[in-house]
Amino acid sequence: xxxxxxxxxxxxxxxxxxxxxxxxxxxxxxxxxxxxxxxxxxxxxxxxxxxxxxxxxxxxxxxxxxxxxxxxxxxxxxxxxxxxxxxxxxxxxxxxxxxxxxxxxxxxxxxxxxxxxxxxxxxxxxxxxxxxxxxxxxxxxxxxxxxxxxxxxxxxxxxxxxxxxxxxxxxxxxxxxxxx
Length: 180
Fold this sequence. Notes:
This protein is α/β, with parallel strands linked by helices. It has helices at residues 15-28, 75-81, 114-120, 127-138, 144-154, 163-176, and strands spanning 2-10, 32-39, 47-55, 67-72, 85-94, 108-112, 178-179.
């Protein structure tokens, strides 16, 4: 198994954190991984993306031009990465932030309203974990056990008390993603 994934959106949406947690989840399961962020000088509001490869075998290069899975959290990201998904690949998009929905017919398209669910949970900081839950529902590249171990590894100890909330957000994301 090898999945080449791009996650893209605005700074502040947890794009880089989502990629880091996904990569650490793979590491916790003894998989080969790469994590390659790309962002401008802006910390919040500018566009950013992260490429994550999770594989059972060695990864030859972290540089990709086509992806198995694209998670896009805003319209500019959809416009840029929809054409770069391999035929038969998966596109997951945040439906509340996309004006012009995806048009390709040779890929599987899923929508998730992580913004709405985060508001319902009264915690905007779990937005990215809701999206990650949606990913794991349609493309189980790592297990929930590996994900939980990764949270303990990546979050500072003072935030470990938030891990149950994050796992609940993942569970909610698994429930609300829908095929288009």
